[in-house]
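Hi support team,

I'm opening this ticket because the web form for multi-chain structure prediction keeps timing out on my end. I have pasted the exact lines I submitted so you can reproduce it. The total is 358 residues across two entries, so I didn't expect it to be a heavy job. Is there a limit I'm missing, or should I split the entries? Thanks in advance, R.K.
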Amino acid sequence: MWQALYEELKDHGFVVIAVALDSREGDPLPWIEAAAPSYPCLIDRDHRLADLYHMVNVPQAVWIDERGTIVRPTEPAGAYEGFRRMDRKTREMPADAARITAEARTTYLNAIRDWVRRGEASEHAFDAGRARARAPRPSEDAARAHVLFRLGQHLIRHGQPDEGDRWLAEASRLHPESWAIWRQRAGVTELGLAAQPDFWARVDGLGARRYYAPVDMKGMP
Amino acid sequence: MAILLTETTETVLPDTRAEGDRLWLFPAELEAATGWSSRPEGFCRGGLCVPVPPARERELMGGGRIDVAALWRHLGQPLAHSADGGAWVLGTAAADREAALRSLQAPDFSLPDRTGRRHSLSEHRGKKVLLVSWASW
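Hello R.K., no limit was hit. The queue was backed up. Here is the completed structure from your submission:
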């Protein structure tokens, strides 16, 4: 998805930087090879980007202009949670959920195109006041969770997997909003990839709350 | 021996001994790992100096060393260590993260690609950047 957009817009002063929040180095490699990206595709084993930008899930994105200024703070990147209505055996989505999901993606990609071509004149690039009002506000517990996540990953890589996993569990408890921490930990114990029962149980636990936060953009569901 | 991890550094401290929640560093080690240096006016990094009240001096300093854990708490920053005291992580407080994000200046970082080559955000100044997370999980 990002490769096509990058190829389309790269001659207009635009670049994609994709960052894999993947603690085990080998995990993202087959995906990177399949996507054959010509933009930087980076690997973030300690989820440093999530800490710096308060990212809690994937895909989330930040729009940064030519001066290094944030014009859209962290938000879901064209993702909509139609998957919550899929049949969990066949993994098929009802037609309207699939349609809304596809439309959300198209709307988001068109907004990027508009921003790249029109810069700050684009209605999708926030001015400073609006961008600041939407800046994430991490909690002290979330900040501590990232410290524990880093400690846990270090221990896992250096022969202390049991203690490492305990710190990851504590990180997830402190920062329950973060699917990135929870799912990374689930990966560590080989339990919780997307099709697994405990993933669905956690999604169901959201109730009326969103899996992907609403995006403040005209036309987004 | 202990290993001290900050956001951007990983420092092996061969002569350091952790004592419970304390980690004693020589001033040069402290500065190399964290950028903070011990000065007459307190602890300083960049243009910023944080004074240490006399009553707390003995808590933070002793025998020519500085307890980096006590210093980190004094600075209001989060930290954690492994049960055996062999690995320590110094983090950044939520208030500092929030202030950085509210400044709207995109925080810089440097991360490797699959070949190990490092890329930083600031290399792309002058372009519009879509900075996007993804994962295999």
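A quick check on our side: The CA atoms of residues 59 and 70 of chain B lie 7 Å apart. Let us know if the file doesn't open in your viewer.
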